[in-house]
Write a structure and sequence with these properties.
Two copies of one chain form a homodimer. By secondary structure, chain A is of the alpha/beta class. Helices cover about 40% and strands about 20% of the residues of chain A.
């Protein structure tokens, strides 16, 4: 059921094309659960489901990879159960690739419930208050049990704003943890699966440099830029990216965690990012905010009550092909499940379509135009 | 978009076969939105959506008709908006048949918010407390605006238990309202659409007889048995059915409102009922209760946490073909949207498959066996 294909069982990344004017690049990630053309957006499926969206519809969109969350899955249903079932792919019946984040960000988000120590992180479950202790090693073991195609190191995510001394302490801890992750992962290394390092260092160029350099020595299959989109101004985020991305090896995939708006994504692609995840399309969908070619559309707006147009006339998603703004508004104000499902289908389509167009634009040497157009997209 | 087909625009019902030993019969309802083989179960789509189930999946199940609710749609989005859009089929993008109940039952359910008068019913909206007054005539007008393929008269639904004097008063009011509905409906009669009368009279045979006889004179296209499944014992419900159904014309469809469990349905088919609706499969699905060939399955049960079997090994629905009890339990305890969607898909499939098997059994002269088998189904 997990569809793992031993014939293509070695994880790899290949750069297949480049934009002449920017850092944008075309590539392909090969995993035991299929190939993933990059740049790619990974819909967020925290607990093993992209909220409100049936797997069948994700497949109809040709989503090649979803992101699941080690922290949430560790707490529920727990690694023992997932192990007995034979891994996450099998539990959730998803035959394509899965990236799991390490839980660092989630533990960081529940600030009042956790304590960082050198050995690892102590925290209380947000579900039942039970006490837990995760280490870099145990997080590797959990992701191994999950059978993640791409696993992430455990990191300490620095809040924003943060002074240089605190950011340095945090980055150095993340670096030591990354080393422990790499060592532990390599002891029982499944060559079909990849472990990515995460560059930290808040908004400080010197710390980002030191973080990246330390990670480069550890032989990761890919590199993420973490600790962004945590409240800093956009300009600061892009400064960090412009500084950090050139430090990473050209031959390895680059993943910008938790970002972002359509415009953020296109800009980051131009800087050389290959992989993205973000709750924006799915969470906004549930809140009635639809991404369209003309900007955001708040479906609860009374103006849509009699509006027979689809959410986005330029969109060919299942929702736009069949349903009107009037119906989607009715479903939203009525609190119906179908509202979340149809809105999510549209927003995830918007993001995946955008990535497809980005890839086409890079391939056809017209990425510059794309970048210009998205600069006009009303955020 | 509403797919109305003028060529088949006359509503009709035809009995096509009968069981030799029971009152069960095979038939077909012809509507402007398609043919409906009977006996039929109509999934409940109160607000214009079968909760948590995409239209696409209903169509994949070949659901030919859904039930929507006049009361709910009157309050939201309101008949003016539905009129501007061009009817309910168009608003919700559902090209197949729709039966609308009149709202009598819903107003009855909000007992503290309503007052019954001869002219009609005064009530406060359960949504915003606003005051409303509906009459038999206005309820006909609303269902005309909705474009219901099958409309229901406004009735006064008697609670259980109820003394004979009160039940008689209520039944007589329902009868006067039914007459007003029939008169008003006939003034602007769309021959593609049907109006059904509703037999009332609580558990009293004499009242049921008088109600049925009065309705017969009013030229309804079909007859419902109402006021059941409101708390009375099963035996009382079946006594009413056994008494009432023979009073109704053999050539017209018979609809048992709001019923019921799988066993109830099979038994009622044996008495000659053609049409059913009930929230049981959809509401139970959202509460994690799945109907299976071996009885009910409460998916939150810890025993299912490691259970890789589908909910029902005998079922071929989308849910059972792909997903395990372990995953469905995980989705349920995690409060995920997909839980409601996958569970609803299964339960609605269970009901529609059962109706298909009932029709096959009647056609192949094996309905008696079916009846026996369902008597063993553990309710």
């Amino acid at each position: 059921m997990d569809g793992e294909n031993p014939a293509s069982a070695r994880f790899s990344f290949e750069v297949r094309g480049r934009d002449a004017a920017t850092g944008a690049r075309l590539g392909v990630l090969r995993t035991a659960h299929g190939e993933i053309p990059t740049p790619v957006f990974m819909p967020v499926g925290t607990a093993g489901t992209v909220k409100a969206l049936p797997h069948e519809w994700l497949e109809a969109l040709d989503a090649r990879v979803i992101l699941a969350n080690t922290y949430h899955l560790y707490l529920r249903p727990g690694p023992e159960r997932i192990s007995r079932i034979g891994g996450l792919h099998r539990l959730i019946s998803w035959p394509r690739a899965i990236l799991t984040d390490s839980g660092g960000y989630q533990i960081f988000s529940h600030r009042e419930l956790r304590r960082i120590e050198e050995e690892g992180v102590r925290f209380q479950s947000h579900l039942d208050g039970s006490s837990h202790f995760l280490t870099p090693e145990s997080v590797m073991d959990i992701q191994r049990v999950l059978g993640s195609d791409i696993a992430m190191v455990l990191d300490d995510c620095t809040p924003y704003p943060c002074g240089h001394p605190d950011a340095e302490i945090s980055m150095e801890l993340s670096t030591r943890w990354a080393r422990r992750c790499a060592v532990h992962w390599s002891r029982d290394c499944h060559e079909a699966r990849a472990l990515f390092g995460i560059v930290q260092g808040s908004t400080f160029a010197d710390l980002r440099t030191r973080s990246a350099e330390a990670l480069l020595d550890l032989g990761f299959e890919g590199f993420a830029v973490g600790g962004l989109s945590v409240g800093e101004p956009k300009s600061a985020m892009f400064e960090v990216l412009e500084h950090t991305l050139p430090l990473l090896p050209d031959t390895r995939p680059r993943y910008l965690m938790g970002v972002g708006t359509p415009r953020d994504i296109v800009r980051a692609v131009a800087l050389g990012v290959d992989m993205f995840d973000c709750v924006l399309p799915t969470r906004n969908a549930r809140n009635g905010c639809l991404f369209t070619s003309e900007g955001r559309l708040l479906i609860k707006n009374a103006a849509f009550a009699d509006d027979e147009r689809p959410p986005d006339p330029d969109c060919t998603c299942l929702t736009c092909r069949r349903y009107s703004r009037a119906y989607l508004r009715h479903l939203y104000v009525s609190g119906e499940y179908l509202s979340a499902t149809l809105n999510t289908m549209h927003n995830v389509t918007f993001y995946l379509d955008m990535m497809g167009k980005i890839r086409e634009a890079i391939a056809s040497k017209s990425f510059g135009k794309w970048l210009e157009r998205m600069e006009k997209w009303p955020e």
